[in-house]
Structure formats: structure tokens, C-alpha cells
């Protein structure tokens, strides 16, 4: 029972990530992700009809997508737990779904709270959907792909963090590197990974991306800086007693705004870890990195 309660708390903490901060570096299409949950809840939320009617229409594969969506929203308003289970089952059966309905289900996954025993399976299903939409260039595919990855990151247990590694590769029609980094960080932001879950391949890949984007010859504000900053913060979360190798890259750039941004993120990470009861000795390396960044800033 305690373990289940902790999983729910962990999911809520990860879901509370500031999407505005996350979405920096991308265009308007990506920033629309911060509105998905509210847009999904808005229409007709005050209708008082029997929720069983809404359930029947939402589950009717012969109804059009818009009608099913409106019924799903109404069903959610009256029976959110049942909708969560339904969304999870639809993600499990996504190979048989109409593609427009799958988009709706991925959006819905961002709004519902899944049972603790379904978190991992839902995360895997979302990553499967993300892989599919990553290879598509039709309108809205990128938004769905990014949304699926971010939501999966909020659900994945620490021992499955390597499932995000394929999305750090620059392949497909949709660039998923930044959202994959944010998904990894959403896991380590809650609490440090146990030593047994350290993934050397993941660490190496992120360090390589970070060095490339923090190189003085290519560094610039926008997506490049956003990826570089996120790489540095992920390595901080994956530190496992290691000093962050990307701090030297930041020092070499000698940009006050960048140093202060990262120092602020470091302080937020330390505060997050303190909230789960870690003593200061548990993150001494992070404090050393922060001290170095602060010294450079001065």
C-alpha cells in the first residue's frame, strides 16, 4: 500500500513540471502542448446526463471521432477513474485504432491519472505511439509524438529509463531529442537514480549531445541552447557521484545568462531532492558543480 501511494505521489510530482520552461527553444506548435490538458477538459463539462450514455458513445468505433471525443470528455467529468482505465486499454490496443482516435487517446493520457499498477505499461504504450508518429510528416504528428514522450517520462519507473534512449537519436520526421531529454529529467528530478539503475550508454549519449550543442562554434540561443542546457541538467540528475563534465563547456562559453540559468536549475534540482528526504551529503557533487558555476559567474 505504501509503495502504491509513493507511485501516485511520484506521478503527480513529475506531472507538475513547468511546460513553459520545458518548451523553450521550439516554435508555437510545441508550446501548444501546455494547453492540451485544459483544451481536452473544456467542452460541455457541466452536462448532467447519465455517464453511461457517454461511455457507450465514446466506446462506439462506428461513431465519428469528434462525437466520441465529446462523449469521452463528458464521461471523464463524471467518472475519471473509469476513463483512465479505458484510455490505458486503448493504448494497449493501439494497432487496431483509427489514427485520429489514437491522437485523441494520446491527448487524453495527458489528463487522466492512471492506477499505480498500470503506469509502466501505459508508458511503454505511449512510447510505441511516439515511435509511430515520429516517422510521420502530416499535420499534428509532431505534437502528438512530443506529448506521448513527455507523458511517458512522467510514468516510467527509474529502472526503465533506458527506454527513452532511442528518442535521443536524430532520426525520423520529428526531432525528439529535446523532449526525450526532458522526459529523462522528469524521472531524475523527483529523486536520484539508484546505483543499480545507472545506464552508461544513456549517460554517454547525452554527454555527446551536450558537448555538440555547447560547442562555441555552434552554440546559439534557441533550440541549440535548450538542448545543451537540458543535457547538462540530465547529467546532473544522473551524476551518480560524478562531477558534471558539461560544466566546463558552460564555463568556456562565458555567457552570464547561460551560467545563471543553469545555476538556477541546479538549485531547483537540489530543492526537489531535499523534498524527498535526502540529506546534503547525498548530493555533494551537485553542490560542488553549483559552487563552480557560481564562481565562474562572479
Structure, described:
The protein has a domain of 108 residues. The chain contains 16 helices and no strands. By secondary structure, the protein is an all-alpha fold. Helix 7 crosses helix 8. The N terminus is likely disordered.
Overall shape: it is: elongated
SS field, number of helical segments: 16
Task: Give the integer mean of the pLDDT values.
Answer: 84
Q: Unreliable stretches, pLDDT < 50, 5 or more residues?
A: 1-10, 12-37, 42-49
Question: What percent of residues are in strands?
Answer: under 5%
Which secondary structure elements does this structure contain, and how are they paired or packed?
Layout: H1 2-15, H2 19-22, H3 28-31, H4 36-41, H5 51-58, H6 65-78, H7 80-92, H8 99-109, H9 119-134, H10 141-153, H11 177-188, H12 200-213, H13 223-237, H14 247-253, H15 256-275, H16 284-297
Summary, kept brief:
This protein has 298 residues and is mostly helical. It has helices spanning 2-15, 19-22, 28-31, 36-41, 51-58, 65-78, 80-92, 99-109, 119-134, 141-153, 177-188, 200-213, 223-237, 247-253, 256-275, 284-297. Helix 9 runs antiparallel to helix 10 (141-153).
